[in-house]
Design goal:
The structure is a single chain. It contains 3 helices and 3 strands. It has 89 residues and is α+β, with helices and mostly antiparallel strands.
């Protein structure tokens, strides 16, 4: 629950929409104002040093989605959230 809460905070900071899902991953749809998932993934990586998996790696249905693994330690998720906030994306 703690990891899911932090992952939700990451998606909130990116203005992504998600539902409260069960399982090992949290999926979120990127805002319509962002042209592609690749743009947001590249910005996260190069500006914040954070990698979030783009949904398109799993097929066309994921083309507007991001996926965070909830298997990551809470501390890493918190660090990612802090980096994203500091990068002011």
């Amino acid at each position: 629950a703690e990891r899911r809460s932090v992952a939700s905070g990451i998606f909130d900071s990116l203005n992504c929409k998600y539902t409260h899902q069960e399982g090992m991953f949290l999926w979120a749809k990127i805002p319509d104002t962002i042209q592609s998932v690749k743009l947001i993934v590249d910005n996260l990586l190069f500006k914040a040093g954070v990698f979030i998996a783009p949904g398109f790696i799993l097929g066309n249905n994921g083309s507007r989605y991001l996926r965070i693994s909830l298997c990551s330690p809470t501390e890493k998720l918190i660090k990612a959230l802090d980096r994203i906030k500091a990068a002011d994306l």
